[in-house]
Structure formats: structure tokens, C-alpha cells
Amino acid sequence: MSKITINVVAAKANVSKKTVSRVLNNEPNVSDETRKKVTDIAEDLGYKPNPLARGLASNQSFILALLYDNPNTNYINNIQTGALKICQDEEYHLLIHPCKASSKELVNNVAELISHSRLDGLVLTPPLSDFPELINFLLANKTPFVRIGATENLTCSSAVVSNDEQTSFEMTQYLISLGHTAIGFVKGHPQHNSAAERFLGFQRALKSANIKIHEQWVQQGDYTFNSGENCARQILTMAEKPSAIFCSNDYMAAGVLKVANQLEISVPHQLSVTGFDDAPISRHIWPTISTIQQPVEDMARQATELLIEKLKITDSKYATLSLESRLLKRESTSPPFKGKKS
Amino acid sequence: MSKITINVVAAKANVSKKTVSRVLNNEPNVSDETRKKVTDIAEDLGYKPNPLARGLASNQSFILALLYDNPNTNYINNIQTGALKICQDEEYHLLIHPCKASSKELVNNVAELISHSRLDGLVLTPPLSDFPELINFLLANKTPFVRIGATENLTCSSAVVSNDEQTSFEMTQYLISLGHTAIGFVKGHPQHNSAAERFLGFQRALKSANIKIHEQWVQQGDYTFNSGENCARQILTMAEKPSAIFCSNDYMAAGVLKVANQLEISVPHQLSVTGFDDAPISRHIWPTISTIQQPVEDMARQATELLIEKLKITDSKYATLSLESRLLKRESTSPPFKGKKS
DNA sequence: GTGAAAGCGCTAACAG
DNA sequence: CTGTTAGCGCTTTCAC
Hints:
The structure is a homodimer of 342-residue chains. Chain A is α/β, with parallel strands linked by helices and 342 residues long. Chain A has 3 domains: 6-58, lambda repressor-like DNA-binding domains (434 Repressor (Amino-terminal Domain), Orthogonal Bundle); 63-163 and 295-326, Response regulator (Rossmann fold, 3-Layer(aba) Sandwich); 164-294, Response regulator (Rossmann fold, 3-Layer(aba) Sandwich), CATH 3.40.50.2300. In chain A, 46% of the residues lie in helices and 14% in strands. Chain A is built from 13 helices and 12 strands. In chain A, the strands form 3 sheets. In chain A, strands 2-1-3-4-5-11 form a 6-stranded parallel beta sheet, covered by helices on one side. Chain A has a 4-stranded parallel beta sheet with strand order 7-6-8-9, sandwiched between helices. In chain A, helix 5 packs parallel to helix 13. The termini of chain A are far apart. The mean pLDDT of chain A is 94. Chains A and B meet through helix 4, helix 5, strand 2, helix 6 and helix 11 of A and helix 4, helix 5, strand 2, helix 6 and helix 11 of B. Chain A binds a DNA duplex (16 and 16 nucleotides) through helix 2 and helix 4.
């Protein structure tokens, strides 16, 4: 039976339970000899400290929560996987907590979660990473947290970011290098700061190549497939069309592809399309979509690591880690087509 | 500060803490008057029972885990959402635990999880729901669990199932009703019992319509997009081709669509294609895929409910709930084309 | 270096 | 219907 408590380990080892506790928690002031003896006996007995008792006594729960409001299940899955890996290593529990950024109740809802679950810390994902009300509440409440993909206020917590502006700049440069000058843009969800960043990078690349933005070719999407379709219908039914469309994510790019197909505009011959995120659909659809791959799982891993570190060492400094993305050139991009459809 | 413990509630209410405890847990033997007084005061103070203390004292953790080994992130997301809803209502925590069904370590890994996290119960999803080693271990270990989409041994635990055999039968009937008699089939992952069920329903429908199965048109996939492509390449390069292909899920159907496009076989004019699961890609790809929609979130909700019920009432009976699926007719299916391509 | 005592916040098992 | 006494398994505090 799993009635192996610290007491039985202590008894078998002929030491006090405090000593066992010290060994378990890697505290100093235990002789190497004692430490080894206790370790061995604990191992032998298959002793597992009871997290509840531990938590009750030390006023911790060893529970973290992952907050998200994101319909991109693939992204969330990667985030979860990354966070989970560290949690398992560090013997933390991870609670997942989908929530609604648009809800007025968001802060209350999170407050409720924190107090009910006695959370030790939070991992925030976009767009929650940049929600002032939430951030301010957590700061005021002194709840430790770490942010993934944050763009603002980078000194108030640890964060792991991906520099979408720069990546977007490079993607745009790639299109320009192919020879495109008439480039449309489908914006992402206005609540996501990544959407703004991606647009900024796009603008900067055009400017530095001395290409003027054609405002009508810039449409507001919201990261969904449907919004991609709608924007594409706007752009591709104009008399003057761009030769390329930069979409702020792959779902929207897929929507653009669908509309292009309906309008019998051949991709990439008559129209180049790019996405962002390397979602599965970018590989499954045809033509496959040129896109940006971000180390999402890694970002979550490192973020969670930063959080736990902060939990262990209260006075550690906040860190901001920036991870590199990769440009994946696939079938949806080519030099612009001159002349008639072949 | 959240130093509001049961003691302060008891003091304010002028009762013993045991009475407060009784009220909190809805135990009998408290006068309505006392109950109301305690409830009000607790509310006033914003008192939240400490789950750790509660767990330690009552030898429960109020933690459930959701086990899965499934690359379909949309499915997993729905399952999570459903399970989470009940957990929040019932004040349970939900741990997510991706694992590898193929690993020899699976049982050890789960055993480790159970003992480390002091789990109260488990929610199993396919293909884990039908893993004898795992089931036997949990049974032997007396760990409560519930299964989603189980097909075997339905009396050893509660389960929520979806009768894929029947649904698959109906989908096949639909194809037959359109006039198809030359129907191919792409099987799902051999480790998933759903794959076998879906094939059985297909076979039964053909048999009852007196249509012989053309063995070469039956290919073994594994629920991935790539496997769909491979199977399609087999089937669609034969001299004699079917006029319809039933794919055991939407990803494989999407793969088939891609290959059909490459081979310039027009869907649905020259080939009807059906999927299963109503994955997002079935709506995003063109033509949109006729498929089966299962109430996945609901299944998870009800399963979790059954588990928690069992936890509360130890001697409650095991239940098996069967939920209905829906056939969604979309663009990828039509009567078979007679004559030349238009 | 080690241990004894106290207590985290709650529920169990009884007694009244 | 209500209260008392223990004690869950661990960490904390402080003494040795």
C-alpha cells in the first residue's frame, strides 16, 4: 500500500523526519553519509512525498495554470506540451484554463481560479500576455506569472518572445526579392499584439525597399479561415490586383487560397500567398503555403522554466528570452507572373 | 489577505468548525438556521476552503487526469473543454497527460502519475480506452476511471461511446443511395478500435445492399493526412477505380482530395469522398468534405460527470452512455458521374 | 549536523 | 443537531 510516509522512511533510517525532509528538499546541513542512507531507503521503499501535505505545510500548491484564449488548437497543443514537459520534471502540476479575453469577467474569473486553486503561478499566452487589466491585477495581487509572446511592458515579468516584427520584415523581403512590388496584406486579430507586429514588419520592409503600400490591398482579418476568405474576396475582385498577399497567419492564407481558386486565379503563378505559424493546414493544402515556423513548444518550455525558477528564487531577476523563427519557402510563392496564364 | 480559514468562519458564526465543515460539504444533520447563518458568513468573508487541507484530511486530491495519445489537436481540444467544464463546476482539478500508447512504459508512466499526483480518477480517451494492459492495471490498482469511445469490456467501468459502426453504416448507405456501387475505403489507425468499427459498418452496409467489396480498393491508413495521400495514390492509379472513397477520418479524406487533384480527378464529379469527425479541415478544404459530426465535447463532459459521480457514490453502478452522431452532407459527395468529364 | 515540538486547514470518528 | 478530540503528512521554528 502507499502508506509509506516520511515517518516510515525516518524510522527505517534511524533519523528524524526533519532530516528526511532536508534530504528530500536538497537542503544543506546534512552529512553526505546520512543523505545517502536516507536517499537509498526512500528509493527502496518507493517513497513518494505527498504533495498535499507538503503544500499544506509550506503554503504552496505546486500548481501552475496555463491561461489561453486562442482558437488555434495546434498552437495551444504545442504550448501545453512544452509547459507540461517542464512541469513534469519539476514536479509541478499544470492546470489548463481557457478563458475569454473579451469577457468583462476575465479578471474575476482568473482571481477566482487563483484563490480557489491556490495557484503558485501563471503562464500567459497571447493575447492575454498583453492584457493590461489582467497584468495589473496579477501585479497588484503579487501572483507570479510569465508571459509568452508579450510585446509590452517587458520589465514587469519574465517573458519569452518571438520578434514577429523582424520575422515579418524578412518574409516581406523574401517576397520583394522574388520580384513582387504589388503586395497585399491581411491583418490578424486586432486584440493580438502579434497582429500589429506582423503588420509593422511588413510596412518596414516595403518602406526600406521604397515600395508604397496600396491601402486597399490591406484588409483587416481576425486570424480565422473565414476572415481570410472575406479579405481575399475584397482584394481579388478589384480591378487592379496585387501579385502577392501576405497573410498574418496560415488559416487566413488558406482562406485566400480557396477564394483564389474560386476566382480561377492560379497560385503561385498569378498570385503568391504567404502565411505565418506553420499550422498543419499550411502543409496539407495545395499549393503548400510558405510560412514562418516558430518554436512554440520551446517557448512554452522556457517560459515555464522561468516561472518555476522565479518561484524558487524569489529575488531572481526577470528575464526576457527571444527565440528565433524560421522562414519556410514552399509552393505558394514564386516570382510574379508576367503575361498570360500558361 | 486570504487568511480566512474555517476557524474564522466558525468563530464568527459561533459554531464549531466541524459544523462549518458540515455545511460546506452539504452533509445532513445541520439545522436550516445554522446552515444559513454559516453559508452567509462564509460568503461574506469570501471564504474559500483550502483544497490541500481538505485533501490531506480526507485522503482525496480532487485531481483528475485526462489521458490521451492523439495527434488530432482539435479532438483533444474538444475533449479538454468538455472535461474542464464539469471539473470547474464540481471543483475538481483536471490534469492533462499526453502519453504514448506504443510505449512499453505506458503503464509505469501512468502508475507514476497516479501515485505522484495522488489522482482521484482518470478519463481515458481512444485509443487508451481499449488498452487491456492499462485497463487491467487500473482495475487491479482500484483507480477509478471512465472511458470515452471504448468498445470492449463495457462492464468494467463507466463509458461514453458513439457507435461508430452504425454511423459508418449510415454514411455508406448514403453513398449507396447516391448510386455508388464501386466504393473504396481507407482504414484508420489499427490501434484505434474506432478504425475497426468504422470498417465494420462499411462492410455491413455493402453486404446489406448486396455489393461486393473490392479488396484492392481497401487500403490501410493511420488517420494521418499522409496516409490518406498514400492510400489514394494506390487506389486512384489502378486501371479500374472506384467512384467513391470512404475515408475513416477527415485528415485522410483531405489527403485523398489532394491526390485526386494531382491526378486531375475531379471531386465530386468523378469521385466522391467522405470523411469522419468533422475536423476543421473538412470545412476549409475545397470541396468541403461530407463527414460525420460527433458530440465530442459532450462526450467528455458526460464522461467526466460519470467519473465524479462514481467518486462520490462508491457503490454506484457503472453506466454506458451512447451519444448520437450526425451525418453532414457537403460538397465532396454526389451521384457518380456517367460519361466523360464535362 | 540533527531533532522535538508545533501547526498548516481541514475532516474522521466519536460522543453528547 | 452539534461539538470534541485526533490526526492526515509534511514543513517550520528553534533548540541542541
